[in-house]
Amino acid sequence: MAKKYHDLSEELSQRYTMREPSKVRDFLRRHPFLMLLLLEAHEKVLAYFGAEARATLEIITDPEVEDDQELFVFVQTLLPPKEAFARLEQLDREWWLDASEKAQGKMCIHLRFA
Length: 114
Hints:
By secondary structure, the protein is α/β, with parallel strands linked by helices. It has one domain (5-112). The protein has 4 helices and 4 strands; from the N terminus they run αβααββαβ. Strands 1-2-3-4 form a 4-stranded mixed beta sheet. It starts with a helix and ends with a strand. The mean pLDDT is 91.
């Protein structure tokens, strides 16, 4: 039996920091197909960047295109930038490029440094 929206939302709240949580939740209500992908993405972030990595969800709006929003998964890591970018490239190659089709252009994964 498929998990309900509320259960998935709770699970995501435990795994991700959400910048403007109400905005993120509204976006996920409109694009519920992203929720299971986000759970999988979190596992991949930990696998590629280590247990100390943190991930933040943020909605970014393209100012040039009305109603064009995308969910960004920002990976925060203490790794040196060169190594972090190499791991992101590996994540892209080994998982995200195929998995991103499920996102229907509504989600992407990037790095963010403190």
